[in-house]
Amino acid sequence: MRHIALRLESPLMSFGGEIIDNYGVTRRFPSASMLTGLIANALGWRRVERTSHQRLQDRLVFAVRIDREPAGGAPIQDFQTAQLGKNDNGWTTRGTPEGRAGGAATYESPHLRYRDYFSDMLTTVAFRLEPADESPDIDQVAVVLQEPARPLFIGRKPCLPSEAMFAGFSDADTALAALQAIPLFDPESAGETVSVLWPQREPAGTALVTRTYALTDQRNWDGSGLHGGGRMVCEGIIDRAQFTSPQAPTAKDA
User: To 5 degrees, how large is the angle CA 209–CA 4–CA 181?
Assistant: First the structure.
């Protein structure tokens, strides 16, 4: 089966997890909903096209690895403030602006929130769409990832990629095997092993499983718009030596 390879690299990136009050955490691996939104953004879909988003997420099968761990090994936290007045409008997920009622301001003090990011991190994704013959197919997605309808970002809008996301194709029977066939983009990174995540329903291959759990990373696109779907995944490690080595550049490439 043919998979698309995605290189996710940025000075800052965020794979958002559950937001508790005003604290937005980040996971170590990109979520199904984030990848769905990224592909949909490349296709030029509007967020109100809920059924299309839902079907795309339902078809998505992927595995992820961390080529380079984040600088410092831990998230960095951004402190944000916002204070909206009566005449301030904001765009909603429905595609229309919405104003504020009440007095001169909605609250006496600014709204405070915290958002976590990883810095100087590099992850690779191998994904396919099932069934393969449904539109959009893997070839259509490959085209728009190289020439997206709108600018792409990794998790949050400030997280712009520092390298091209589309990194070619990889053929394998499973997403994890397809991922393992993609050369490491940072083979000199520290550590003897690479952290990986893949669907539990697919075999581990040569990966050492460290834990299996239910991951709530799917959005209810066709209903409430909130995260409410989950799937079973495996986390594990693979020796760096087991990944395909980068090919030496040819005279034509030099």
Answer: 50
